[in-house]
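Q: Start with the shorter request: fold the first protein.
A: Done. Sequence, then structure:
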Amino acid sequence: MNIDFQRIEHPAVYTIEEMKALDFPAHSTVAKNLFLRNGNGKEHYLLVVEEDQNIDLKEVKTMIASSRLSFASEERLEKYLGLAKGAVSPFGLLNDKQNDVTVYVDSHLKDANVIGLHPNDNTATVFITFEQLLQFIKETKHEIHQLNFA
């Protein structure tokens, strides 16, 4: 895809707090990635937001005009994105060949110098720009919906 990136290997991390404790490049932002499902489990969503963004699922439900939202199970994460718990990432969209997952990106990420994302594995972080993130998502044939959290 001709996307330049920086990759940093590190011990496995499972939370944003663990990611923040790592020695990442100055002026980088780590993305928080949430894999959600609607009330009946027929719709699945990937939210890519700033690391410090507090997410209220009731607010997100209203923003995306969905029924009740909850975190998808590990089984659904594996089925739709081919990922394990702790490795949720937009790069998992490569595994969603049927485009079953709807992608929402926090518009505040555009202000980040570079964004850190797991490369489908939580023992490394890849840093790319916001534009490169959007390019990648488009290359996977997923439509990008931007959300603007206050």
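Q: Next, the second protein, separately.
A: Sequence, then structure:
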Amino acid sequence: MSLLSTLLRGRPDGLRARLFGRRRSAAPAAEAPPPEAQEKALGLSKQAPKDVTPPDGFEVVLHKDALADGQIIEVIIGGTAIAVARVGTTHYAVANTCPHAGGPLGDGKLDGTVVSCPYHGWKFDIADGRCVTQPSVSVRTYRVQIVGDAVCVEL
């Protein structure tokens, strides 16, 4: 599969395929499923709380227990794709796009606080955004606050 095709249509096992319950060979979905179905398709254990008011500049993205320890996912909030991860009881958020080749970090493999890009394996520390593979490169990090049962990310 070409890089351009992957960038435009997503990966067969990526976020869009999981959200719309299709593989690349299937016909495009007519309509997006409801948020509850999307969360279930992503393998999230709990729905994001709707009764939480996030701090100014923050958005509620997940329930604090939605991710298992060591899990990372892609979340699109406010039109911005971010990767949200849980390591122990701490949640982290970084830009979802690898600066090397545009790989979705939310689909990468998480080892402690280091995520590997699924395209070429570049590694990023999600605690501070620095690239372990290429020290002159980094990804943006986002502040995270837990409010009640909600993971809130500053955009």
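Q: Describe the second briefly.
A: DSSP finds three helices and ten strands in the chain. The first helix runs from residue 3 to 9.
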